[in-house]
Amino acid sequence: MVKCTREQRLRAVRLYERYDRGAASVINELGCPSRQMLVRWHRAWVEAGRDGGGSLGDGRGERYTPGQKRAAVDHYLRHGRCAARTIRALGYPCKALLARWVDELEPGQRRIRRAPVDARTRRKAVVEYASGSGTSRQVGEELGVSADVVRNWKHKMLAGDDKERAMGDDADKGGTPKSREDRHRDDGGRSLEGMRRERDGIRSQLTRMRAERDELEIELEIIRYTKELLGKGRGADPDNLTNAGRTCLVLHLAGRFAVKPRDLLGRY
After folding, report:
1. Which of 2, 15, 13, 17 is closest to 53 using CA atoms?
2. Which of 21, 68, 99, 164 is most buried, by the most CB atoms less than 10 A from its CB?
3. pLDDT tens digits for range 145-177
4. Residue 248, helix vs strand vs coil
5. Please, what's the b/e burial string for 140-159 (b: 16 or more CB within 10 A of its CB; e: otherwise)?
6. 245 with 229: CB under 8 angstroms?
7. Which pLDDT value is given to residue 60?
8. Would you say which domain of life the source belongs to (predicted)?
9. Single pTM value for the model
């Protein structure tokens, strides 16, 4: 990438304004920079009060101006010291560069991730917070976590104490806490697994009963339709039907019971 001197940058931003912010005209005349870079230079120059070029860097590879650095660091400190939030809001820089700027301009203010807090330390922090010895923010800052994390620890710890207390109450009433299997029994003493097996058995029985009902309905319809074809005499038997009669019967059953004729041909 071609490096532009401070004088070249200053000339570029002045031409940019003279040409009514026509980036293409400036680039065609000077041969540099890109449109994005030109807009960035112009913004920094305007924010600096259209100075003599000091806000445009020295052309030795410095990509961001001092004003941009300060703006990024200020945003980082004022918005929860979250690098990702600052980068999303400003569009620059990368996390490593932002960390370097914070250490340079505001030493000791950068949030450094620590190892996970163990259970004993969490409990000690909750006790300190709950007793009023410190606010959630103060306790969290000592451990490198946010105030919300400390409050969340407190809620979880209190919920755990309530469960232990409930189990203790069950024991005080003359019995031991219910086991998992006991909790899965109904008032009749049936286990959950036993009730599931009973349910599955009933479902299978219903399926068989429905199948038998369907078969009976088809058989009754065969007898009724055969009588229509052969009359009501003694010879009105499905076995006495001709091939043409059997075909009529199968088509009739298929239409009435919504089944495929080929499924009936082998049965009747």
Report:
1. 13
2. 68
3. 777 888 888 888 887 655 555 555 555 555 455
4. helix
5. beebebbeebbbebbeebee
6. yes
7. 47
8. Bacteria
9. 0.28
